[in-house]
């Protein structure tokens, strides 16, 4: 059977099929060649934007990429350059238009190289130590390559500490304005950004606290840059803080949700669905803000909750309760009690830590209030009043506040505090100067205390009048 088939003559039809098959193969090869080129082009990463942020100890350059790209880098001297090679990449942005003012970079330039690669060169004015890592896409950003440039001669970032005489040191309050830099936090319907609102409130709190004898307020971030969640806790510890406050104005999926909240750390789950939602949202900040999460174990993962941690949690709960009671006078409360959730930024075993949601920026009405300087001042004043009420009863021995409590006669000239301020409703004919004179304080002090930009007041307005010195 096999031999008979082999010896049969080839028909013209068979030959035509063979020629057609050969032609089809050629066409398919051409087609797949074109398709392969298109696939190759589509796979190439495009540099869509380059963003630059300046922090106290480093400069951050972020490449927004359309797709992940393998990279390698090296440095060159005389002049100083950081060179980053990206495989299968190209640039779709104008590098010469990037604002580098205030940074150690003189220029960013780039060029395509053979094999589809792209070389980016950062020309520096001084020697820099680069740390470069890639971040996966998330809800707010696509793929990114983060380039952190550290000055090897710069001192580590540290916050101010108390420096009063022995036995009368200041209570150090570390105020952490959430988010910052490339992480805007939540954004309201009118595009108001959380990072800006909380920074403004944090600065107002700092001014109020620093005006009070016995208190020293320090800002964990003092500008528009991102600080990792772990580093926020570390900076508070370096400042020897007596209290850590993290300030936020978050968003919720339901825009009707509103009201201020105060949170402490929970090791046993969230106290409500909204608390769990907000904690999950905040704990993702490092992925958005650009922090290398490789080999970063949680600080508490291997720490047993001993008596010192229990005491810290108890102190956190007490100060949170005091703050919440004061916030209720100036803002609607989301919950009547202190809430609890696993916020990573609160996981400090030795510093009482509280997270304050000043409101939901996703709510249109609350967004308007939170962007108002007047409401920000009211929130700041309420929080400071809560802090002072707590420390009036629980200040540590060796602090000025403790000394004042135990030496009331010697401390009778202590400065006024929001906790002891008098609320006054403005009447017809009142002026700021007359109110200042009547209460034996300066106009400047009354203006500063209420956060006024000028001396204008209106009938029916409620202002705070501190006791005379």
Describe, in plain words, how this protein is organized in 3D:
The protein is an alpha/beta fold. 32% of the residues lie in helices and 22% in strands. The chain folds into three domains: 43-150, Immunoglobulin-like (Sandwich), CATH 2.60.40; 171-394, Aminopeptidase; 421-469, Membrane-bound Lytic Murein Transglycosylase D, Chain A. The protein has helices at residues 2-6, 12-43, 194-210, 229-238, 273-283, 285-289, 307-327, 364-370, 373-394, 400-406, 432-438, 443-450, and strands at 45-54, 58-65, 71-76, 81-86, 89-91, 105-112, 118-124, 129-135, 143-150, 171-177, 215-219, 243-248, 261-265, 339-341, 353-357, 422-425, 462-465. Strands 11-10-12-15-13-14 form a six-stranded mixed β-sheet, sandwiched between helices. Helix 3 (194-210) crosses helix 9 (373-394) and helix 11 packs across helix 12 (443-450). Mean pLDDT is 83; it is low at 1-13, 31-42 and 299-307.
CATH superfamily of the largest domain: Zn-dependent exopeptidases
The level of helicity is 25-40%
CATH architecture of the largest domain: 3-Layer(aba) Sandwich
Q: How many β strands by DSSP?
A: 17
Order of helix and strand elements from N to C terminus: HHEEEEEEEEEEHEHEEHHHEEHHHEHHE
């Amino acid at each position: 059977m096999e031999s008979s088939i082999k010896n049969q003559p080839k028909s013209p039809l068979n030959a035509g099929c063979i020629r057609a098959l050969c032609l089809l193969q050629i066409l398919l090869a051409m087609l797949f060649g074109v398709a392969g080129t298109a696939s190759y082009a589509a796979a190439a990463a495009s540099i869509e934007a380059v963003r630059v942020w300046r922090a106290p100890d480093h400069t951050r350059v972020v490449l927004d990429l359309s797709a992940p790209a393998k990279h390698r880098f090296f440095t060159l001297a005389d002049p100083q350059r950081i060179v980053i090679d990206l495989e299968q990449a190209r640039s779709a942005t104008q590098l010469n238009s990037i604002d580098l003012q205030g940074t150690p970079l003189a220029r960013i330039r780039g060029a395509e190289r053979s094999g589809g690669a792209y070389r980016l060169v950062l020309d520096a004015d001084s020697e820099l130590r680069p740390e470069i890592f890639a971040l996966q896409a998330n809800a707010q950003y696509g793929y990114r390559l983060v380039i952190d440039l550290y000055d090897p001669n710069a001192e580590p970032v540290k916050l101010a500490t108390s420096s009063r005489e022995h036995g009368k040191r200041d209570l150090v309050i570390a105020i952490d304005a959430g988010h910052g830099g490339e992480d805007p936090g939540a954004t309201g319907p009118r595009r108001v950004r959380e990072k800006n609102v909380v920074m403004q409130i944090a600065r107002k709190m700092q001014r109020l606290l620093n005006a009070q004898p016995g208190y020293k307020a320090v800002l964990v971030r003092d500008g528009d840059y991102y600080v990792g969640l772990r580093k926020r806790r570390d900076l508070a510890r370096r400042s020897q803080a007596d209290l850590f406050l993290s300030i936020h104005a978050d968003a919720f999926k339901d825009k009707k949700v509103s009201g201020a909240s105060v949170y402490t750390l929970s090791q046993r789950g969230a106290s409500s669905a909204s608390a769990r939602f907000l904690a999950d949202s905040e704990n993702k900040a490092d992925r958005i803000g650009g922090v290398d999460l490789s080999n970063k174990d949680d600080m508490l993962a291997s720490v047993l909750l001993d008596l010192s941690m229990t005491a810290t949690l108890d102190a956190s709960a007490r100060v949170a309760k005091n703050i919440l009671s004061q916030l209720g006078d100036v803002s609607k409360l989301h919950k009547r009690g202190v809430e609890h959730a696993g916020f990573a930024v609160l996981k400090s075993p030795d510093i009482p830590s509280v997270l304050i949601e000043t409101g939901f920026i996703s709510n249109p009405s609350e967004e308007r209030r939170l962007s108002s300087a007047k409401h920000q001042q009211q929130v700041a004043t309420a929080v400071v009043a809560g802090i002072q009420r707590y420390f009036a009863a629980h200040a540590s021995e060796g602090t000025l506040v403790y000394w004042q409590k135990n030496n009331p006669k010697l401390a009778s000239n202590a400065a006024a505090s929001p906790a002891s301020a008098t609320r006054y409703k403005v009447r017809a004919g009142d002026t700021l100067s007359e109110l200042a004179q009547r209460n034996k304080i300066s106009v400047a002090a009354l203006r500063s205390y209420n956060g006024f930009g000028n001396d204008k007041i209106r009938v029916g307005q409620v202002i705070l009048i501190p006791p005379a010195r």
